């Protein structure tokens, strides 16, 4: 069957075709070996879930008081990708430097159950990428929705409130907080 390599008509490998990986594979499973394809799908998903493009590697979601910035970073030393998240006041230009962020960190620190999947986006290791990139892209809509939801002040304080004093929490809730 054209386009499915050595798989049978039903989309599974025949017993004689089984090699190192003896698990049957669905024909719908996409092998992710190209960083450009991965990034294109990642960017499209962010846009579909309300994030606006700032530039090729930065997307933001703005609410009334808070802005979430999603940053895509490639390692200088290899093919690994990192994803940073910043929450800051929405009163400025999204291009403004993030030194005034209310909260910032790596994406995997926000989604503990996805830690291994997020940290394993490394295009220097085809086995990792083929396993984890499709999983990450499948989970990205829910991740993007959660990131966007946390731009609501109440949701932000429920998720990140422990990082702030009671006075700071009250100021965030009242939309009067200003980082020092």
Characterise the protein shown here:
With about 180 residues, this protein is of the alpha+beta class. It has helices at about 35-50, 105-110, 115-120, 125-150, 155-160, 165-175; strands at about 50-55, 60, 65-75, 80-90, 105.
List keywords for this structure.
single chain, 180 residues, alpha+beta, five-stranded antiparallel beta sheet, 6 helices, 5 strands, elongated, disordered N terminus
Task: Report the average pLDDT across residues.
Answer: 83
Give me the number of helical elements.
6
| Strand composition percent | 15-25%
What quaternary form is this? Answer: single chain
- Biggest sheet architecture: 5 strands, antiparallel
Net shape: elongated
Low-confidence stretches: 1-31
What is the SS-derived class? alpha+beta
The helix-strand sequence is HEEEEEHHHHH
- Ends apart, CA distance between termini: 63 Å
Q: Give the strand order of the largest sheet, numbering strands 1, 2, ... along the chain.
A: 1-2-3-4-5
Could you tell me the number of beta strands?
A: 5
Work out the helicity level.
25-40%
Q: What Rg, in angstroms, do the CA atoms define? A: 20 Å
Record the SSE blueprint:
Blueprint: H1 35-48, E1 52-55, E2 58-62, E3 66-74, E4 81-89, E5 103-106, H2 107-110, H3 115-119, H4 126-149, H5 153-160, H6 166-173
